[in-house]
Design goal:
Radius of gyration: 19 Å
Number of helices: 9
Order of helices and strands: HHHHHHHHH
Helix content: over 70%
Shape: elongated
Number of strands: 0
Structural class: mainly alpha
Distance between the termini: 60 Å
Oligomer: single chain
Length: 197
């Protein structure tokens, strides 16, 4: 198979996830991934810096989508409306095919602390992109940071629920609901708020 195949990245990602699940992340080599995908090692390194990046390459895409959606929201949009716009933009990449891959990623992450640390760094970069986009709109520093952290918690909750949902349920539906729920629970932490039983 040609190393210039237009679907090379997709094939490498699928092969890597399958091998990580079958053999374990640490036992899987780049050469095995390339062979499973019908490509060579050089092609792998054209698409990924290392095998950890296979698990988190999509995070950079999300950071860009979220940041752009926040910046492009209407001028009068509140921070919450900006976060809703970011989650709506994620539907473009949070497809049914990605849901199947997400389930494999969760399995691989649960078994390896090294990749868990990489995942935390990637999530921090997404939060930073959201925070920067909110600040660019004139949101103060603390509100922008809080908004980004709320967004990331809602995102994680939404992914968990989306992976258990029916095939026809879009990610954005779960993300909007998770954002509402996280904000409601956060309000319950305010002084004098009555906590639910």
């Amino acid at each position: 198979m040609s190393r210039w195949a237009p679907d090379a990245r997709e094939r490498l990602e699928s092969a890597a996830l399958d091998l990580f699940v079958e053999n374990g992340y640490e036992a899987t080599t780049v050469a095995q991934i390339a062979e499973r995908a019908g490509l060579n090692r050089a092609t792998f390194f054209r698409h990924f810096a290392d095998k950890r990046e296979v698990l988190f390459g999509g995070e950079d895409v999300l950071a860009g989508l979220f940041g752009d959606a926040v910046r492009d929201a209407p001028a009068q949009a509140t921070p919450t409306e900006c976060l809703r716009a970011a989650f709506a933009a994620a539907d473009a990449v949070m497809t049914p095919a990605q849901r199947a891959k997400a389930a494999k990623r969760v399995q691989v992450l649960a078994a390896n602390s090294e990749v868990q640390e990489r995942g935390l760094l990637k999530h921090a970069r997404i939060a930073a992109a959201i925070s920067a986009a909110l600040r660019a709109r004139g949101t103060d520093e603390l509100t922008a940071r809080l908004g980004a952290e709320v967004a990331m918690l809602a995102f994680r909750v939404a992914v968990e629920r989306w992976m258990r949902a029916r095939e026809d349920e879009p990610f954005g539906l779960h993300a909007a609901a998770a954002l509402d729920e996280v904000q409601t629970r956060a309000a319950e932490l305010a002084p004098g708020a009555r906590l639910r039983a």
